Fold each of these.
Amino acid sequence: MDFQELEGCKPFILKNSWVSPLNFHPEVRSKMNLPKKVLIHDVTLRDGEQMAGVVFTEDEKVFIAQELDKIGIQMIEIGTPAVSEEDQRAFKRLSKMNLRAKKIALARIIEEDVKLAAECGADGLFYETGINPYFVKHVLGLDSKEFINRIIKGAKLAKELGLFVEFCGWDTFRINNLEWIKTVYTELLKNVEVDQIGISDTFGQAHPFTVNFLVRKMKEWFPSVPLALHVHNDYGLATATALMAVASGAEAVETSFNCLGERTGNASTEEVVMGLEMILGIDTQIDCSQLYTVSKHIEEISKVRVAPNKPIVGERIFHSESGIVIDANEKMSKGSGIEYSMFPYNPESLNRKLKYVGGKKSGRAFIKLYLQKKGLKASDAQVEEILMRVKKQSIVMKNYLDEEELDKIVKIVLG
């Protein structure tokens, strides 16, 4: 569409949405080190299930894995075979299906975990352990040499068994000795050609600048090995952290639908995918139009309700009650030709629709639009009367009004 230029400005359209052009300003882009492509490693079925009270049955894991595969998720972490027979059976069933995604198993630095994952038909491992020296000493009971040798031994076995291997040292961001971090990964990579390495902001504590710092360090130390980030949302920074990691050079992000996961959950798959697409301009190869559908399926199966204002998939994010916003959106839409001018992304790209609703914050613009939709005419005084009644009833109900309630008010006023 050819937009009218105003004060030297034109809408910046990316994938049918009006986005911020400043994200693509040369000075901003010069500070980024974007990879050629980014893999989404979805951990809903493993880390998502670690959320207290969440349980996925074998059938549910198989169903969700198929749904994730359909939309183009590249790596799906099915579970931990060493934890349950249900996970083992889910892997075995999925291994017989022609999924495009890699089927990933979590394995501790224990050879039995590695062998079991291979036996169950996993394509690869999220091969992980805490590398914080306090964890190594007090939880694993190992000295540094024993610890590194155990990592190497399990990774070698995994590669001998033909598995894709990402080694992730979690709790990376609470370690203040960078040389220790460097040593762990250096010793592993000297002995085993793992496919990917990962770092983890396990407790969601790192400022985005801190993430930029450590990702750049890792790429400086190990430039030829793809790097992944695993992050939790304890400070509400997970999406920002994930996008900063990618902007700093990370080639993969571990995410979970609906932000499911330990404590506050992981970086949200739907938020990270849309952020990569619309903020960084990276084609994830994922079908964004189905993010909402998959989210709703997982919401129903997990029994963890999504907040109505949750970014990307919240039930009310395309609802508008404010008279000022509705009036502005209508006028901007007519002037610019963009029907969602007062929204951050085009709802159609997510297979969603705009919805104007009547309530306490409504204005005359909403009433006139509603009457027009119904094929009705009203005087200015009648519009005011309908608006007053809508506001009063909304205050009593503490909600916006549904269509039936609006029709009753219109009928009372217009007769």
Amino acid sequence: MWRARIINFAKIFEHPAWGFSHFRRTYDLTIELAAYQERIIDEDCIFAAAYLHDIGAFKPYKQEGKDHGEVTVQNCDKILQELGFPQVKIPKVKEIISSHMFYNNPSNNIESILFHDADTLDFMGIIGITRILSIVGIDDWTPDLASALKIVRRFCNELPQKLYSDKAKEIGNNRKKEMIDFLDKLSAETNDLKLL
């Protein structure tokens, strides 16, 4: 029952780049990475972390000047208890969420590592480009198209080094190639981005 409650709770968080669809992709990819590596993981904790990890970026939880992951962790106990999630597993969910972003280092547990990799991979490749372009003009990251493309280029160069598991690195290399191909073709079609 708690899984259905978490899904219903998470559905209210709609955003073109980090809403419900991103939650689902991150969950699915974490499960895939674990299967590729034949690792046993706590799927309950991954499920809860996936559908909650970015809620600190949304009202009513968002706090100006605070990292959204930190805000999410602060609210996890209450939310998960209300949704009927097993109390004993909440600390692991909080650990997974606290290091999910590419700019953080995951803890040593396998769930944190794979979840961090899955979340990072969702900023790469065609899906990563789409997510970044979807927030042009509506997010501080991307006030205009030129700034969005700078982020795409930066993520293409930097994010592969932020991956930990072997399978994530392999997927990351493929997604990096997709990003390079996109940027090269866009540059060719826009006179080195001068005609955007």
Amino acid sequence: MRKKIFKISIFYIINISVIILFGIVFKFSINQWLLIFFGAIIVSIVDSCLIYFWLNQKNSELEIMKNRMAMTRENHEPRGVVAEDRSPHYALINEFNELQNYIKQMKLNTERDINNYQSLLSSLPVGVINVNRRHIIDVFNETAAQLLGMHKPEVPIAESIVIRQFTLSELINQTFNTKKNQQSILNLQINGETKQYDVSTLYRSSDIQNAEVMIILYDLTTLLQIEQMQSDFLANASHELKTPLTAITGFIETLQGPAGQDTATRAQFLQIVADESHRLSSLVNDILSLSHAQQRDGKDQTYFSVKNLVSEQWQQIKTLFPEKKVILHNNIDENFNINSIYTEISAILQNLIVNAVKYNVLNGSITVQAKKNQQNWELEVSDTGIGIPTNQQSRIFERFYRGDESRQRTIASGTGLGLAIVNEIVTKHNGQIKVTSQVGVGTTITIILPL
């Protein structure tokens, strides 16, 4: 403001000096002096107004630019300034507008990249955690929260508040100390359950103060359980296959010797070979059935009567165990029809009814019932057999599981895969199995499948 007043004062002094000089040279009269003096004052005032307006106009453009830049710094949307061609700041304003457009585009790109990054983090099947040198977590995705059994925390947050597993914390510290990537399989206690995680740590640093460690968590629990199940299955299958093969080989070798000349001995040994061959064939068929049950094939569904299917199965099964004299009560309604894969429902019924006969008492009974609602249908098979001890009920669907082996062998023979086949089929259809049993009273197995 002082600079403006100083400039105007200089302008007035120059004007007055010029008037006085002209008055002395041309020897103005008093009236002429007064006329020229007042005229000069009026012209000076008009000029001052024009100069003031012109200066304000120039300064207003710069002031707007200053305000727009301040708003941009405060994270408001970048905006340009409108300027006319004759403006003395036209070139500067154009450069400013281009800068604002560039900032706006960069801001949009950054927001898009952040959204994509967050979407990627949230959809990753692995847990991702990022920790800086001050042990502050600034990245923690939803999968990491699920794997560690907690709600997703708001970041940034102190590492010690979130990561309370000692082995995981030690792995992070080791990564910072050695400045090298680490990889380990950790057993972590999550909500009272032991989980196996493949944990990888990635060290990143531009300098010591800005070092960061990214932790990648992958749940190996299910995979390791599957591997163990496969290992157990191979071991059990090998054992089960080897037993009848050993018997068959041994008795054939015996028959090839002098014992084969005795008619009674030969007949007895040949019957044993036939029985073991049948057992071996049943085992192979059940293994193949189990393999087919695990496959998610595209078999066509058909509409059929469950009552008729039960009756068909019973006509075949009752001839296999005539000595049991078991009675079947088919209590399913005549009009109870479902739309499903016929062969798979048939396999479920066959295995459930065969087990119900095998482990039933003499002159016992089996009851088959079915019902449905808007979402599911249920199949219930009950028997009056020996029952299943409580501590064994959760394991009866495991492959080759027989409970008390010696007791089961004396009651009924089998491959130990029947209920495993049922379980695989039900699991493939996203169904459920319920078991209710009491030793000496009987067992009820309920299958729930979606319609």
Amino acid sequence: MSAILISRIIGAVVLGVIGAFTSLPIYNFVLQYVDLLALSQGVVTGLTAVIFAVVGFIITPYITIKPFQALIKLFTKSSAQSLMSGLIGMTIGLVIAAIMAYPLSLLPKPFGQILPVAGLLLFGYLSTVLFVTRREDFANLYKNMTSKMPSRAKGESGRRVLVDTSAIIDGRIADIAKTGFLGATLVVPRFVLNELQFVSDSADSLRRQRGRRGLEVLGELQESKDVNVVISDIDVEGVREVDDKLVLLGRQMNYPILTNDFNLNRVAELQGVKVLNINDLANAVKVIILPGESLQIEVIQEGKEYNQGVGYLDDGTMVVIENGQRYIDKQIEVTVTKILQTSAGRMIFAKPSLE
């Protein structure tokens, strides 16, 4: 039996009893204006009880169960940040109303009796609405104030960075964090964690492996003493795509986004959101090599052109060696002749130093 049906039955019984006990006063009152055709008191009592019971059966869910269901639905949809902002706003409003209640009670009647109650309702409502609708502004204000204070927790920083799913799956973020160069608190929104879990549950084996690798990287970051990781419930209502949510949060909270997703990078930059791209970092820290310098490199395979050999630097940069085919599987010294920078990366051309 559903809660609504139970509430209807209880409402019908309660109001039916009330109708039975109030039937006589109602009968006497109506009899002053309308002739009831000499109905007996018993008949009037029965009719009144039935009418009250029907009314109770109809309206009881709307004044008991349904309001609570609506509140539960509202609380379920609202983020923890919204609920906390509403609670703080309501508390501040009630405190202001309590301070104003005494001077308002000194006013002449009926204002001294009505205005304290009206102020309680008004300040509580307005403060709650203000804090919920402007929660991001208050959060940024609090963040700016606390960022000026020295951090006490180890690894905690006043600077915060939103982390995209692609950056976690990529895995290099864990190695970057170990170096200590990151210098920021990594904020992983709950919807990014949900997307990571969705990828790890994918039917495609490659996507499933990448998702599980991402979960392992996130766990490694949380256990690391070199960086502070926060799983946040911040969200953007009315937006479904993860990338769109990250860009909007980056704009609202003035947080940069850590990613290696090219499309997200471009969209965020167009909307004025700072982006920390792992691929750009990797290109920036590559060793600077100039034509004429010498390198020690192992030739591992043939090149595309005749008599070419190919080797790779530690950072993955390809080195094409002229007349290097005969040195395959050997470590030789080469002299850089040309450096070619393309959208796919950097390519170095060299020749054996002995020639």
